[in-house]
Task: structure prediction
Amino acid sequence: MTGQWWEPEELSPAIRDYFDRLMDFLRGSVLLTQYLYMRGRFLEGYHVHCGAARFALSCGLHRLTSFIFNNPVYTNSNPTHIVLLQPPASGVELGERISTFWMIYMCDKLSSVVAGFVCALPSESDPVDAVETVFPRMMDEYELGTVSDVGSGSLLSLFDHVPPATTPQRDSCWTVIIKGFAILERAIQLSTAYRARPTSNSAVALRQLELAANRFLSTLRPVAYFISEDVSTESMNPEDMANFMAHHTVLGALIEIHQTLVDVDEKAYEARLSCAKSMAELTIAVKDGGLVYGCLIGVGFCWCLAAQVLIQHIESNDDKELFVVENYEAHLAKIVSALEKLSLTFPMLVHQFKQVQEALGRIGGLSGGVFAEVE
Result:
């Protein structure tokens, strides 16, 4: 049976139950990983996640290239691999497998972005095990049979610097969050590689990612939508929360890119500063409640990036006019306040918050008593 799916008629009830338990194991592993990450136990969570990621690859979940049940395109494309799962028995089951893979993918990006762990899943350009799975849709589309492959997207289309030929489908809330984290993690990896060994190819890769990031940013609700006292993390609907998170992760990615290229691009300094200010404006929506979504850990990481940019700018302008410094201090105060609130929910962010504290110490803290020490 190497290199192919088992046919349904070959399966005994015991084997079918085995397949069901494999999916239960993967979903349970995702829940456990998310719980451990939210409690700041990243090493334990990463251990659980790596096991789930390898099983997901063995089950072929990274090669689900169609939403349509019974399409042949989600067969095993690598004849040297054994696929542990039979083909899905229905469209709903196919949708569940696609969603499960992307939950595992999100855990993978959180591991890399927040804790600096090596990704357990391959990239979309891996020569052996490329991630080809289409982005998830809402489950009711599978249940009603309204799901369509027209304009469907994947990581390949997200990172392609050439705009798609067909009009893409409107992203589901989950897809919006996934895309933001994928762009952020890619920016960190490319920036790290460029700093270690600057080459023209790596610079081009960063520029292409910048184009992809800005293209995706243009599909989100504008920042101005969130700059209102009426918009709050306590009462955001799923679509608004997804856009709120994606804005932060993409702005964080752009900060990484501009920070990396600041010595070779005269516009990069102002560009990263503009991203940091936009992120500060978004924090107006952050209230004490509503900060319970696990993906917000990544948003906290982006706030730290923006805070560092603003602190560096204030340091370099400490001899300029007072109103210039106070303007950026106001932006910094918003980010620090939001980060403090989020660190009360997620212990992992306390360490990063303290790093911001230490950086604030270099500029004598914030005026007006906005900043409070974390014990």
